[in-house]
Write a structure and sequence with these properties.
The chain is of the alpha+beta class and 158 residues long. It has one domain: Alpha-D-Glucose-1,6-Bisphosphate, Chain A, domain 4, CATH 3.30.530. It has four helices and eight strands; from the N terminus they run αβαββββββαβα. The protein has helices spanning 2-19, 44-57, 123-139, 148-157; strands at residues 28-33, 62-63, 71-73, 76-80, 84-95, 99-110, 115-117, 142-146. Strands 1, 2, 3, 4, 5, 6, 7 and 8 form an eight-stranded antiparallel beta sheet that branches. Helix 2 packs across helix 3 (123-139). The protein is globular. The N and C termini lie far apart (46 Å). The model has no long low-confidence stretch (mean pLDDT 84).
Length: 158
């Protein structure tokens, strides 16, 4: 009797803790490159121009990139709670001639001076960044593909 109550209590505690776990999503999103009326998909310079234009339209400021095949942005504050703030920068990289991947680099800064890389995109960061970014990229002819998990979920649902 005591053993079954302890097992039940552990089960309830375990379920309660999993309900409080963050929704973990990877630090990138994929987009398909579609030709615009005035361009060819295979023109690499055109793709970089469209990426830069979309980032500017979404409110991002370009920064020097670590590689010539990447467009990087300056960090942008997403949340500021007084005791900590979260900043995110982006790296946008064409993958072949048909896809573009946007890498998110969220970093949490403590008021005490600590810095922590955030290992996933939490829902607050996604809500703050993705709508404007997706809209700006769509206006430049990029189609949102999301993450592999999101694509798998869509396949299962249909």
């Amino acid at each position: 009797m005591v053993r079954s109550r302890a097992a039940l209590a552990c089960l309830v505690l375990g379920l309660g803790l999993t309900a409080c776990a963050p929704s973990i999503t990877p630090l990138y999103r994929d987009y398909e490159v579609r030709a615009t009326l005035s361009s060819d998909v295979s023109n690499e310079g055109e793709v970089f121009m469209r990426i830069r234009s979309a980032l500017t339209e979404a409110g991002w400021t370009e920064a020097p990139a670590d590689a010539p095949t990447v467009v990087s942005t300056e960090p942008r504050t997403v949340s500021d709670w007084g005791l900590s703030r979260t900043e995110v920068s982006l790296d946008v990289a064409p993958i072949g001639d048909r896809f573009v991947r946007v890498y998110f680099h969220p970093v949490r800064y403590s008021a005490l001076g600590g810095r922590t890389k955030v290992p996933y995109l939490n829902s607050g960061v996604r809500r703050a960044l993705l709508p404007d970014l997706n809209e700006a990229l769509a206006a430049q002819g990029f189609v949102v593909l999301g993450t592999p998990r999101e694509r798998d979920e869509e396949t299962v649902e249909s």
